[in-house]
Specification:
458 residues; mainly alpha; Fumarase C, Chain A, domain 2; 3 domains; two-stranded antiparallel sheet; 8 strands
Length: 458
């Protein structure tokens, strides 16, 4: 163990640790969530430290040798070399001070070693005076959450796009499969199975647009605003220089917040992203529930589609297959809705010049991204791509439904069709059979009417 001192006194720190005294205290103080701040947020802070060190160097406030050592330390962290050094619990001081200092100390000690010194040697590189120069947790931490969210949105949207393509592919494959539509879970007018799958795809395309729009707002960062966003103790050029350097590191187009105080106090842009993820989850939940209904049975339910089997469905009923992927995805979606509720409450829970629930906001956002990313990949690969249409069941269900009666209205008139419906109920013969037996319409004409029944032009 080595001894390190801070304003509270002396504390022992493991010799092997790259973190320092502040982190050691935080590890002792906080262990409620039982999980550390997500690495995606840690890496967001590291990228900001990189950018700030270069901005301070350009302003003549940090010697090149020291700035380069800090950048070298940042590179090592981002390369995953010291992952075990970031273990501070999620539920900590509300601005994320413990995690910011954790990052400062690790980078400072990596820089010290790179310069030939020892861990804990603050004379070579100081975690506050050098790594955290011109910064405050109050704007570094929320800026890091935004960086993490922007990057995670890219990953998520690739898998949502793949899911959309899988749905569109099934939409084309099932374009000719006429079936009964249903409203209120009751028979309604005809639709094709392909139209149903294309509707699913369109819903997710709109979700993609919402996530992209929310991500665009997260490009505005309050970093460099210091304690409350006014930029106290920094030069006017500091903030724009940080963003220039950050954009070099990330390849993005981050921009300086129009109002530094607003960016420090209000987490609403993060709430909007969380809400966009929730809406995506709700659409996915609806799709999964539809697939479960359409595949129900298979002998005593709707049975209009067949989901790919992924595991035996029962420990007691041999041969039973359950819609396991849809059920797993449904639970994932419900979890995201719950996480969004926590994010929303935390975003509204700030007071005066600071939101004091940022670690919770960041942690839940990252969790939602991770869940939806993996869930969409699972749904596309393990479910959608292997779905088959039970064409015969779709046809029979449609011919027995009230939808056929609606389709015949323009050709035969309401009263005549109503009589046929009554006869169908009395004789247990479907409308198609009655119409053909009575030679009211030829089979060819009936097939043409059915073929046009799912579009706007009858």
């Amino acid at each position: 163990m080595r001894k390190e001192r801070d304003s509270l006194g002396v504390k022992a720190v493991p010799d092997s640790a790259f973190y320092g005294v502040h982190t050691a205290r935080s590890l002792d103080n906080f262990n409620v969530a039982g999980e550390p701040v997500p690495l995606e947020i840690v890496y967001g802070m590291v990228k900001l430290k990189w950018a700030c060190s270069k901005a301070n160097q350009r302003l003549g406030l940090l010697p090149a040798k020291k700035a380069n050592a800090i950048v070298q330390g940042c590179r090592r962290v981002l390369a995953g070399k010291v992952v075990d050094q970031f273990a501070v619990d999620v539920f900590q001081a509300g601005s994320g001070t413990s995690s910011n200092m954790n990052v400062n100390e690790v980078i400072a000690n990596l820089a010290c070693v790179a310069l030939g010194g020892k861990r804990g040697d603050r004379k070579l590189v100081h975690p506050n005076d050098d790594v955290n120069k011109g910064e405050s947790t109050n704007n570094v931490f929320p800026s890091a959450i935004k960086i993490a969210s922007v990057e995670l949105s890219d990953v998520l949207l690739k898998n949502v796009d793949a899911l959309v393509r899988a749905l569109r592919k099934k939409g084309s494959a099932f374009a000719g499969v006429i079936k009964s539509g249903r409203t209120h879970l009751q028979d309604a007018v005809p639709v094709t199975l392909g139209q149903e799958f294309n509707a699913y795809a369109r819903a997710l395309e709109k979700d993609v647009a919402r996530v992209e729009q929310a991500a665009g707002k997260l490009l505005e960062l309050g970093v460099g605003g210091n304690a409350i966003g006014t930029g106290v103790n920094t030069k006017k050029a500091f903030r724009p220089l940080i963003l220039q350097e950050l954009n070099k590191v990330t390849g993005r187009k981050y921009r300086v917040a129009k109002d530094g105080l607003e960016a420090t106090q209000f987490m609403t842009d993060l709430a909007e992203m969380s809400s966009a993820l929730k809406l995506l989850a709700l659409d996915l939940l609806k799709i999964c529930n539809d697939l479960r209904l359409l595949s129900s049975g298979p002998n005593t339910g709707l049975g209009e589609i067949v989901l790919p089997p992924v595991e035996p469905g029962s420990s007691i009923m041999p041969g039973k297959i359950n819609p396991s992927i849809c059920e797993a995805m449904g639970m994932a979606c419900i979890q995201v809705v719950g996480l969004d509720n926590a994010v929303a409450m935390a975003c509204g829970a700030g007071q005066l010049e600071l939101n004091t629930h940022m670690p919770l906001i960041g942690c839940n956002l990252v969790k939602s991204f991770r869940i939806l990313d993996r869930g969409c990949a699972m749904l596309a690969k393990k479910c959608i791509s292997g779905i088959k249409a039970n064409r015969e069941v779709c046809r029979l269900n449609f011919e027995r439904s009230a939808g056929l009666a609606t389709v015949l209205n323009p050709r035969l008139g309401y009263d005549r069709v109503a009589e046929l419906v009554k006869e169908s109920l009395r004789t247990k013969k479907d409308l198609r059979r009655l119409v053909l037996e009575k030679k009211i319409i030829s089979e060819g004409e009936l097939n043409r009417i059915l073929a046009r029944s799912t579009g706007p032009n009858l």
